[in-house]
Design brief:
Two copies of one chain form a homodimer. With 185 residues, chain A is mainly alpha-helical. Chain A is built from nine helices and no strands. Chain A has a domain of 127 residues: Tetracycline Repressor, domain 2. The structure holds a DNA duplex (30 and 30 nucleotides).
DNA sequence: CCGCGACTATACAGACCGGTCTAGTAAAAA
DNA sequence: TTTTTACTAGACCGGTCTGTATAGTCGCGG
Protein backbone atom coordinates (compact mmCIF):
# COMPACT_ATOMS: atom_id res chain seq x y z
CA UNK A 1 0.00 0.00 0.00
CA UNK A 2 1.85 3.10 -1.22
CA UNK A 3 1.57 6.73 -0.19
CA UNK A 4 -1.32 7.28 2.22
CA UNK A 5 -0.93 10.91 3.03
CA UNK A 6 -2.99 13.27 5.12
CA UNK A 7 -4.95 15.00 2.37
CA UNK A 8 -8.18 13.39 3.38
CA UNK A 9 -7.79 14.43 6.97
CA UNK A 10 -6.80 17.98 6.08
CA UNK A 11 -9.81 18.24 3.81
CA UNK A 12 -12.06 17.24 6.67
CA UNK A 13 -10.52 19.73 9.06
CA UNK A 14 -10.84 22.55 6.58
CA UNK A 15 -14.42 21.53 5.92
CA UNK A 16 -15.24 21.61 9.63
CA UNK A 17 -13.86 25.12 9.93
CA UNK A 18 -15.76 26.43 6.94
CA UNK A 19 -19.06 24.67 7.60
CA UNK A 20 -19.25 26.08 11.10
CA UNK A 21 -18.81 29.56 9.71
CA UNK A 22 -20.90 29.55 6.54
CA UNK A 23 -23.21 26.62 7.06
CA UNK A 24 -23.88 23.82 4.61
CA UNK A 25 -25.26 25.72 1.65
CA UNK A 26 -23.03 28.69 2.29
CA UNK A 27 -19.87 26.65 1.91
CA UNK A 28 -18.65 25.71 -1.56
CA UNK A 29 -16.40 22.81 -2.33
CA UNK A 30 -14.00 24.99 -4.28
CA UNK A 31 -13.86 27.20 -1.24
CA UNK A 32 -12.86 24.27 0.93
CA UNK A 33 -10.11 23.23 -1.47
CA UNK A 34 -8.81 26.76 -1.84
CA UNK A 35 -8.85 27.50 1.88
CA UNK A 36 -6.94 24.35 2.71
CA UNK A 37 -4.53 24.50 -0.19
CA UNK A 38 -5.88 21.09 -1.09
CA UNK A 39 -5.37 19.13 -4.29
CA UNK A 40 -8.30 19.75 -6.56
CA UNK A 41 -8.31 16.42 -8.23
CA UNK A 42 -8.71 14.23 -5.22
CA UNK A 43 -11.90 15.41 -3.59
CA UNK A 44 -14.11 12.86 -5.28
CA UNK A 45 -11.46 10.26 -4.80
CA UNK A 46 -11.53 10.61 -1.06
CA UNK A 47 -15.21 11.51 -0.86
CA UNK A 48 -17.05 9.75 -3.65
CA UNK A 49 -20.30 10.69 -1.95
CA UNK A 50 -19.59 14.34 -2.72
CA UNK A 51 -20.51 17.25 -0.53
CA UNK A 52 -23.00 15.19 1.41
CA UNK A 53 -20.37 12.69 2.52
CA UNK A 54 -17.84 15.40 3.24
CA UNK A 55 -20.27 17.27 5.48
CA UNK A 56 -21.44 14.14 7.25
CA UNK A 57 -17.89 13.07 8.03
CA UNK A 58 -16.90 16.56 9.07
CA UNK A 59 -19.81 16.66 11.47
CA UNK A 60 -18.93 13.27 12.87
CA UNK A 61 -15.31 14.30 13.36
CA UNK A 62 -16.19 17.57 15.08
CA UNK A 63 -18.78 15.79 17.17
CA UNK A 64 -16.25 13.29 18.46
CA UNK A 65 -13.76 16.02 19.33
CA UNK A 66 -16.30 18.05 21.23
CA UNK A 67 -17.52 14.95 22.96
CA UNK A 68 -14.04 14.47 24.37
CA UNK A 69 -13.89 18.07 25.47
CA UNK A 70 -17.25 17.82 27.22
CA UNK A 71 -16.23 14.64 29.00
CA UNK A 72 -13.00 16.19 30.22
CA UNK A 73 -14.77 19.33 31.39
CA UNK A 74 -17.15 17.36 33.57
CA UNK A 75 -14.34 15.15 34.89
CA UNK A 76 -12.28 18.16 35.82
CA UNK A 77 -14.99 20.16 37.59
CA UNK A 78 -16.22 19.67 41.13
CA UNK A 79 -19.90 20.06 40.26
CA UNK A 80 -21.92 20.10 37.04
CA UNK A 81 -22.56 23.78 37.66
CA UNK A 82 -18.84 24.41 37.62
CA UNK A 83 -18.44 22.34 34.48
CA UNK A 84 -21.09 24.37 32.67
CA UNK A 85 -19.57 27.65 33.81
CA UNK A 86 -16.19 26.47 32.61
CA UNK A 87 -17.51 25.37 29.27
CA UNK A 88 -19.36 28.63 28.68
CA UNK A 89 -16.27 30.64 29.53
CA UNK A 90 -14.20 28.66 27.06
CA UNK A 91 -16.84 28.97 24.35
CA UNK A 92 -17.08 32.70 25.00
CA UNK A 93 -13.33 33.11 24.75
CA UNK A 94 -13.13 31.16 21.52
CA UNK A 95 -16.02 33.08 20.03
CA UNK A 96 -14.46 36.39 20.93
CA UNK A 97 -11.07 35.32 19.58
CA UNK A 98 -12.72 34.37 16.30
CA UNK A 99 -14.50 37.71 16.18
CA UNK A 100 -17.86 35.96 16.37
CA UNK A 101 -17.35 34.35 13.01
CA UNK A 102 -18.22 30.76 13.80
CA UNK A 103 -21.00 28.81 15.46
CA UNK A 104 -21.31 25.34 16.84
CA UNK A 105 -19.88 22.95 14.22
CA UNK A 106 -22.89 20.69 14.56
CA UNK A 107 -25.70 23.16 15.09
CA UNK A 108 -24.65 25.37 12.20
CA UNK A 109 -24.79 22.46 9.80
CA UNK A 110 -27.84 20.82 11.39
CA UNK A 111 -29.98 23.87 10.83
CA UNK A 112 -29.67 24.12 7.06
CA UNK A 113 -28.58 20.80 5.68
CA UNK A 114 -31.41 19.21 3.75
CA UNK A 115 -29.63 15.91 3.21
CA UNK A 116 -30.85 13.17 5.47
CA UNK A 117 -27.42 11.66 5.78
CA UNK A 118 -26.01 14.90 7.17
CA UNK A 119 -29.01 15.37 9.41
CA UNK A 120 -28.47 11.91 10.86
CA UNK A 121 -24.79 12.61 11.48
CA UNK A 122 -25.73 15.75 13.40
CA UNK A 123 -28.36 13.91 15.39
CA UNK A 124 -25.82 11.27 16.27
CA UNK A 125 -23.31 13.85 17.49
CA UNK A 126 -25.96 15.57 19.57
CA UNK A 127 -27.03 12.25 21.02
CA UNK A 128 -23.47 11.49 22.09
CA UNK A 129 -23.12 14.86 23.79
CA UNK A 130 -26.45 14.38 25.51
CA UNK A 131 -25.37 10.99 26.72
CA UNK A 132 -22.17 12.34 28.22
CA UNK A 133 -23.94 15.20 29.96
CA UNK A 134 -26.76 13.04 31.22
CA UNK A 135 -24.35 10.49 32.67
CA UNK A 136 -22.38 13.21 34.43
CA UNK A 137 -25.52 14.68 35.96
CA UNK A 138 -26.63 11.25 37.03
CA UNK A 139 -23.30 10.61 38.72
CA UNK A 140 -23.77 13.82 40.65
CA UNK A 141 -26.99 12.47 42.05
CA UNK A 142 -29.33 14.73 40.15
CA UNK A 143 -32.78 13.41 39.45
CA UNK A 144 -34.28 13.64 35.96
CA UNK A 145 -30.76 13.87 34.58
CA UNK A 146 -32.01 13.03 31.12
CA UNK A 147 -34.48 15.90 30.85
CA UNK A 148 -32.06 18.29 32.48
CA UNK A 149 -29.29 17.32 30.07
CA UNK A 150 -31.58 17.96 27.11
CA UNK A 151 -32.41 21.39 28.46
CA UNK A 152 -28.76 22.21 29.04
CA UNK A 153 -27.83 21.14 25.54
CA UNK A 154 -30.67 23.21 24.09
CA UNK A 155 -29.66 26.25 26.07
CA UNK A 156 -26.02 25.99 25.09
CA UNK A 157 -26.84 25.63 21.41
CA UNK A 158 -29.25 28.54 21.54
CA UNK A 159 -26.82 30.68 23.47
CA UNK A 160 -24.16 30.11 20.85
CA UNK A 161 -26.61 31.15 18.15
CA UNK A 162 -27.65 34.29 20.01
CA UNK A 163 -24.15 35.23 21.06
CA UNK A 164 -22.85 34.98 17.56
CA UNK A 165 -25.73 36.93 16.12
CA UNK A 166 -25.49 39.69 18.71
CA UNK A 167 -21.70 39.66 18.68
CA UNK A 168 -21.83 39.51 22.44
CA UNK A 169 -21.06 36.64 24.79
CA UNK A 170 -23.71 37.58 27.36
CA UNK A 171 -26.10 34.74 26.45
CA UNK A 172 -23.44 32.14 27.23
CA UNK A 173 -22.88 33.51 30.70
CA UNK A 174 -26.62 33.96 31.24
CA UNK A 175 -27.16 30.27 30.58
CA UNK A 176 -24.39 29.25 32.99
CA UNK A 177 -25.76 31.53 35.68
CA UNK A 178 -29.37 30.47 35.24
CA UNK A 179 -28.66 26.76 35.28
CA UNK A 180 -26.26 26.95 38.22
CA UNK A 181 -28.89 26.41 40.95
CA UNK A 182 -30.25 23.41 39.04
CA UNK A 183 -26.84 21.78 38.72
CA UNK A 184 -25.51 21.79 42.24
CA UNK A 185 -24.49 18.17 42.58
CA UNK B 1 -51.30 57.01 -6.65
CA UNK B 2 -52.48 54.13 -8.88
CA UNK B 3 -52.62 50.40 -8.25
CA UNK B 4 -50.80 49.34 -5.12
CA UNK B 5 -51.41 45.65 -4.95
CA UNK B 6 -50.32 42.96 -2.55
CA UNK B 7 -47.48 41.44 -4.55
CA UNK B 8 -44.86 42.85 -2.24
CA UNK B 9 -46.56 41.46 0.81
CA UNK B 10 -47.09 38.06 -0.73
CA UNK B 11 -43.45 37.94 -1.74
CA UNK B 12 -42.43 38.60 1.83
CA UNK B 13 -44.72 35.94 3.25
CA UNK B 14 -43.46 33.36 0.80
CA UNK B 15 -39.90 34.35 1.62
CA UNK B 16 -40.51 33.90 5.34
CA UNK B 17 -41.84 30.41 4.78
CA UNK B 18 -38.93 29.36 2.60
CA UNK B 19 -36.15 30.98 4.58
CA UNK B 20 -37.24 29.24 7.76
CA UNK B 21 -37.08 25.92 5.99
CA UNK B 22 -33.96 26.18 3.84
CA UNK B 23 -32.04 29.03 5.44
CA UNK B 24 -30.59 32.02 3.68
CA UNK B 25 -28.17 30.37 1.28
CA UNK B 26 -30.42 27.40 0.78
CA UNK B 27 -33.25 29.53 -0.55
CA UNK B 28 -33.11 30.78 -4.12
CA UNK B 29 -34.89 33.82 -5.43
CA UNK B 30 -36.39 31.89 -8.30
CA UNK B 31 -37.65 29.42 -5.75
CA UNK B 32 -39.44 32.16 -3.84
CA UNK B 33 -41.09 33.48 -6.97
CA UNK B 34 -42.10 30.03 -8.14
CA UNK B 35 -43.48 28.93 -4.77
CA UNK B 36 -45.60 32.06 -4.42
CA UNK B 37 -46.71 32.22 -8.04
CA UNK B 38 -45.17 35.67 -8.04
CA UNK B 39 -44.41 37.93 -11.00
CA UNK B 40 -40.79 37.55 -11.99
CA UNK B 41 -40.34 41.04 -13.24
CA UNK B 42 -41.15 42.88 -10.09
CA UNK B 43 -38.81 41.44 -7.53
CA UNK B 44 -36.19 44.10 -7.97
CA UNK B 45 -38.87 46.71 -8.27
CA UNK B 46 -40.17 45.98 -4.81
CA UNK B 47 -36.81 44.97 -3.37
CA UNK B 48 -34.08 46.93 -5.11
CA UNK B 49 -31.66 45.75 -2.42
CA UNK B 50 -32.02 42.22 -3.78
CA UNK B 51 -31.92 39.08 -1.70
CA UNK B 52 -30.37 40.90 1.20
CA UNK B 53 -33.24 43.33 1.51
CA UNK B 54 -35.82 40.63 0.98
CA UNK B 55 -34.36 38.52 3.77
CA UNK B 56 -33.98 41.45 6.12
CA UNK B 57 -37.59 42.51 5.63
CA UNK B 58 -38.84 38.95 5.91
CA UNK B 59 -37.02 38.56 9.20
CA UNK B 60 -38.41 41.83 10.48
CA UNK B 61 -41.94 40.83 9.52
CA UNK B 62 -41.71 37.41 11.13
CA UNK B 63 -40.09 38.94 14.18
CA UNK B 64 -42.97 41.34 14.66
CA UNK B 65 -45.56 38.60 14.31
CA UNK B 66 -43.87 36.36 16.83
CA UNK B 67 -43.43 39.26 19.17
CA UNK B 68 -47.18 39.67 19.24
CA UNK B 69 -47.67 35.98 19.87
CA UNK B 70 -45.19 36.01 22.73
CA UNK B 71 -46.84 39.03 24.31
CA UNK B 72 -50.26 37.44 24.12
CA UNK B 73 -48.99 34.17 25.54
CA UNK B 74 -47.62 35.89 28.61
CA UNK B 75 -50.76 38.02 29.02
CA UNK B 76 -52.96 34.95 28.84
CA UNK B 77 -51.05 32.77 31.28
CA UNK B 78 -51.21 32.91 35.06
CA UNK B 79 -47.47 32.53 35.59
CA UNK B 80 -44.41 32.77 33.33
CA UNK B 81 -43.98 29.03 33.81
CA UNK B 82 -47.43 28.47 32.34
CA UNK B 83 -46.66 30.81 29.48
CA UNK B 84 -43.51 28.91 28.58
CA UNK B 85 -45.28 25.58 28.79
CA UNK B 86 -48.01 26.92 26.54
CA UNK B 87 -45.55 28.30 24.03
CA UNK B 88 -43.58 25.09 23.89
CA UNK B 89 -46.71 23.05 23.34
CA UNK B 90 -47.76 25.30 20.47
CA UNK B 91 -44.31 25.18 18.90
CA UNK B 92 -44.27 21.42 19.25
CA UNK B 93 -47.66 21.09 17.59
CA UNK B 94 -46.68 23.35 14.71
CA UNK B 95 -43.40 21.51 14.22
CA UNK B 96 -45.15 18.16 14.16
CA UNK B 97 -47.79 19.42 11.78
CA UNK B 98 -45.07 20.65 9.43
CA UNK B 99 -43.32 17.28 9.66
CA UNK B 100 -40.29 18.96 11.25
CA UNK B 101 -39.56 20.88 8.08
CA UNK B 102 -39.09 24.37 9.47
CA UNK B 103 -37.16 26.08 12.22
CA UNK B 104 -37.45 29.41 13.93
CA UNK B 105 -37.86 32.06 11.20
CA UNK B 106 -35.23 34.23 12.82
CA UNK B 107 -32.77 31.65 14.13
CA UNK B 108 -32.64 29.75 10.86
CA UNK B 109 -31.66 32.86 8.96
CA UNK B 110 -29.46 34.30 11.70
CA UNK B 111 -27.20 31.28 11.70
CA UNK B 112 -26.09 31.38 8.08
CA UNK B 113 -26.65 34.84 6.69
CA UNK B 114 -23.33 36.55 6.12
CA UNK B 115 -24.84 39.92 5.27
CA UNK B 116 -24.61 42.40 8.07
CA UNK B 117 -27.94 43.93 7.22
CA UNK B 118 -29.70 40.60 7.68
CA UNK B 119 -27.74 39.87 10.82
CA UNK B 120 -28.83 43.20 12.29
CA UNK B 121 -32.46 42.51 11.43
CA UNK B 122 -32.25 39.20 13.26
CA UNK B 123 -30.56 40.80 16.24
CA UNK B 124 -33.30 43.38 16.37
CA UNK B 125 -36.04 40.75 16.33
CA UNK B 126 -34.31 38.80 19.08
CA UNK B 127 -33.92 41.97 21.13
CA UNK B 128 -37.63 42.67 20.87
CA UNK B 129 -38.52 39.19 22.00
CA UNK B 130 -36.07 39.42 24.86
CA UNK B 131 -37.56 42.72 25.88
CA UNK B 132 -41.08 41.30 25.99
CA UNK B 133 -40.02 38.25 27.98
CA UNK B 134 -37.90 40.24 30.37
CA UNK B 135 -40.72 42.68 31.07
CA UNK B 136 -43.15 39.86 31.72
CA UNK B 137 -40.77 38.18 34.16
CA UNK B 138 -40.18 41.48 35.89
CA UNK B 139 -43.90 42.02 36.25
CA UNK B 140 -44.13 38.64 37.95
CA UNK B 141 -41.67 39.81 40.55
CA UNK B 142 -38.75 37.69 39.43
CA UNK B 143 -35.31 39.00 40.19
CA UNK B 144 -32.64 39.08 37.46
CA UNK B 145 -35.41 39.03 34.88
CA UNK B 146 -32.98 40.16 32.20
CA UNK B 147 -30.55 37.28 32.60
CA UNK B 148 -33.35 34.80 33.01
CA UNK B 149 -35.06 36.04 29.86
CA UNK B 150 -31.82 35.63 27.91
CA UNK B 151 -31.47 32.07 29.15
CA UNK B 152 -35.08 31.27 28.27
CA UNK B 153 -34.67 32.67 24.79
CA UNK B 154 -31.47 30.69 24.30
CA UNK B 155 -33.08 27.50 25.47
CA UNK B 156 -36.11 27.92 23.24
CA UNK B 157 -33.99 28.59 20.18
CA UNK B 158 -31.75 25.66 20.92
CA UNK B 159 -34.68 23.38 21.61
CA UNK B 160 -36.20 24.25 18.25
CA UNK B 161 -32.91 23.41 16.58
CA UNK B 162 -32.58 20.09 18.39
CA UNK B 163 -36.22 19.14 17.97
CA UNK B 164 -36.12 19.74 14.28
CA UNK B 165 -32.87 17.86 13.83
CA UNK B 166 -34.01 14.89 15.89
CA UNK B 167 -37.52 14.98 14.47
CA UNK B 168 -38.79 14.79 18.02
CA UNK B 169 -40.42 17.43 20.17
CA UNK B 170 -38.90 16.23 23.44
CA UNK B 171 -36.38 19.09 23.72
CA UNK B 172 -39.19 21.65 23.71
CA UNK B 173 -40.96 19.97 26.60
CA UNK B 174 -37.67 19.42 28.43
CA UNK B 175 -37.01 23.14 28.35
CA UNK B 176 -40.47 23.98 29.66
CA UNK B 177 -40.16 21.45 32.45
CA UNK B 178 -36.65 22.47 33.46
CA UNK B 179 -37.40 26.18 33.59
CA UNK B 180 -40.70 25.77 35.41
CA UNK B 181 -39.28 26.01 38.95
CA UNK B 182 -37.36 29.14 37.96
CA UNK B 183 -40.44 30.85 36.56
CA UNK B 184 -42.96 30.52 39.32
CA UNK B 185 -44.11 34.12 39.62
C1' DC C 1 12.80 -1.83 -13.64
C1' DC C 2 8.24 -2.87 -14.19
C1' DG C 3 3.69 -2.64 -12.93
C1' DC C 4 0.04 -1.59 -9.94
C1' DG C 5 -2.42 1.00 -6.87
C1' DA C 6 -2.72 5.47 -4.41
C1' DC C 7 -3.29 9.83 -5.47
C1' DT C 8 -3.57 14.34 -8.25
C1' DA C 9 -4.06 17.86 -12.27
C1' DT C 10 -6.97 19.76 -15.38
C1' DA C 11 -10.71 20.48 -18.21
C1' DC C 12 -15.34 20.70 -18.57
C1' DA C 13 -20.39 19.64 -18.35
C1' DG C 14 -24.90 21.28 -17.06
C1' DA C 15 -27.51 23.49 -13.96
C1' DC C 16 -28.55 27.23 -11.22
C1' DC C 17 -27.23 31.46 -8.88
C1' DG C 18 -28.27 36.58 -7.97
C1' DG C 19 -28.90 40.45 -10.57
C1' DT C 20 -29.81 43.68 -14.74
C1' DC C 21 -32.13 45.28 -18.68
C1' DT C 22 -35.65 46.72 -21.92
C1' DA C 23 -40.07 46.76 -23.39
C1' DG C 24 -44.54 46.91 -22.26
C1' DT C 25 -49.26 46.97 -19.65
C1' DA C 26 -52.63 48.95 -16.77
C1' DA C 27 -54.77 52.29 -13.95
C1' DA C 28 -55.16 56.66 -11.74
C1' DA C 29 -54.41 61.75 -12.27
C1' DA C 30 -54.64 65.95 -14.94
C1' DT D 1 -57.51 62.08 -23.78
C1' DT D 2 -52.99 62.52 -22.45
C1' DT D 3 -49.58 61.98 -19.08
C1' DT D 4 -47.68 59.99 -15.21
C1' DT D 5 -46.97 56.40 -12.15
C1' DA D 6 -47.16 51.41 -10.59
C1' DC D 7 -46.08 47.36 -11.85
C1' DT D 8 -44.88 43.08 -14.79
C1' DA D 9 -42.98 39.96 -18.64
C1' DG D 10 -39.15 37.69 -19.89
C1' DA D 11 -34.75 37.48 -21.95
C1' DC D 12 -30.18 37.72 -20.59
C1' DC D 13 -25.56 38.45 -18.13
C1' DG D 14 -21.40 36.62 -15.90
C1' DG D 15 -20.31 33.79 -12.36
C1' DT D 16 -20.43 29.77 -9.34
C1' DC D 17 -22.28 25.53 -8.08
C1' DT D 18 -21.69 20.22 -7.71
C1' DG D 19 -20.11 16.59 -10.10
C1' DT D 20 -17.59 13.78 -14.01
C1' DA D 21 -14.01 12.25 -17.13
C1' DT D 22 -9.45 11.57 -18.46
C1' DA D 23 -4.78 11.64 -18.26
C1' DG D 24 -1.45 11.65 -15.74
C1' DT D 25 2.39 11.36 -11.44
C1' DC D 26 4.32 9.25 -7.55
C1' DG D 27 6.12 5.44 -4.69
C1' DC D 28 6.47 1.00 -3.25
C1' DG D 29 6.35 -4.43 -3.97
C1' DG D 30 7.85 -7.75 -6.69
Amino acid sequence: MPRRNDTRDRTLRTAVDLFRVHGYHGTGLNQVLAAGGLPKGSLYFHFPGGKEQLAAEAVTMAGAEFRTRITETFDRAATPADALADAMRVLADELTAADFAHGCPIGTVAIDADSDRVRAACADAFAQWHSVISAALHRSGLSNADTLATAVLSAVEGAQLLARNRRDTTPLYAVAETFAPLLKG
